[in-house]
Specification:
Blueprint lengths: L6 H4 L13 E5 L4 H12 L3 E6 L4 H9 L7 E5 L5 H15 L4 E3 L31 H22 L14 E6 L12 H15 L2 H7 L1 E8 L5 H4 L2 H4 L12 H13 L8 E4 L4 E3 L22 H8 L2 H4 L3
Parallel strand pairs: 1-2, 1-4, 2-3, 4-5, 5-6, 6-7
Antiparallel strand pairs: 7-8
Protein name: NAD(P)-binding protein
Keywords: NADP, Oxidoreductase
GO molecular function: oxidoreductase activity
């Protein structure tokens, strides 16, 4: 029998304090953008961080070098988040380098690039999703990776290398997931991305009970339009924006909200914090009014729908199976 729940609003939350100082974190996608800002903020607050990414941009390499031999410490582990054994290995590296982990952020994500895009079917010229692969890279990165990483985090929290470090209400642990305002809205141009963020919102809320019960908090952030290379280095995405009308949210604002989700007692398990250019608020599970205000608009996006209609008339779709 199917049931519905408003757990995120009703479950009493743990009042046990949590500080990132002295903790150990894994952050996927820390080579750039929001996750680099988050990893940098954690380090500045005394938390060691494993940077798990395919590569580091120069600004991320500078941070890793700065903290390579200090305490707290930064370590880079090359990781393809689509590969489960590499996700497992990053936990092994954290055990080896830090003696365990307290905070896990499966933050790596992509904004439905042309090479893994609903409107460029597997087998078309733009797509790198092979017709016989049975998968979309966008969904592997944005959905399967945070789900599998959360599973692995829970296992490690329950079975740490030091038995005295097991998660419990007086020894809390944290998972912080990056969702998006796309988890509440829709957009013809990026249906896989939208589907993935709707999935993440539901996934985050499912764990609300665990905060008070066993000290494991799973929260999420839902940023608006963030000024990161995901946007600024992709002209096809920048065309969505009118910079005279639309405002950016800065990655440092998102990072601050992520730390709040880890530390603040009233942001209990299952909470999703929405971050705009000028305001941050909790997203309600039911009857939420939706995002509004600066940092949430892409004025030209509806005009860009013409591209979809042109793609639908292209040979890739007439030949699609």
């Amino acid at each position: 029998m199917a049931t519905t729940s408003t757990q995120a609003e009703e479950v009493p939350q743990s009042t046990h304090s949590f500080s990132v100082k002295g903790k150990r974190a894994i952050v996927t996608g820390a080579g750039s953008g929001i996750n680099l800002a988050f990893a940098s903020l954690l380090l500045s607050k005394g938390c060691s961080v494993l940077f798990a990414d395919l590569a580091l941009r120069s600004e991320a390499q500078k941070v890793v070098d700065q903290y390579a031999k200090s305490e707290p410490r930064a370590v880079f582990q090359k990781t393809d988040v689509r590969v489960w054994r590499e996700l497992e290995h990053m936990f092994d590296v954290a055990d080896k380098e830090f003696g365990g982990v307290d905070i896990v952020c499966p933050g790596a994500g992509i904004f439905e690039p042309h090479w893994s895009n609903f409107w460029h079917p597997p087998g078309s010229k733009e797509s790198k999703d092979a017709p016989d692969s049975d998968r979309y890279a966008t969904m592997d990165i944005n959905v399967t990776h945070p789900i599998r990483t959360t599973q692995l985090a829970i296992y490690r929290f329950l079975n740490p290398i030091d038995s005295g470090d097991k998660v419990n209400p007086t020894n809390p642990k944290r998972v912080i997931i990056t969702s998006s305002i796309a988890g509440q809205t829709s957009n013809l141009l990026t249906p896989l991305y939208v589907a993935g963020k709707h999935a993440m919102n539901g996934f985050i809320r499912c764990f609300a009970d665990l905060d008070a019960r066993i000290g494991l908090r799973v929260n999420g952030v839902a940023p608006g339009i963030i000024k990161t290379p995901l946007w600024t280095e992709h002209p096809e995405k920048l065309s969505f924006l009118d910079e005279d009308k639309d405002a950016w949210v800065m990655p440092e604002q998102v990072a601050e909200a992520m730390v709040r989700c880890l530390e603040e007692a009233d942001l209990g398990g299952g909470t999703i914090l929405e971050i705009g250019a000028k305001a941050t608020r909790k997203v309600a599970q039911l009857n939420d009014p939706g995002p509004s205000g600066a940092g949430f608009t892409a004025t030209n996006i509806a005009d860009e729908y013409a591209k979809v209609y042109s793609w639908l008339g292209a040979e890739a779709w007439s030949a699609a199976k």
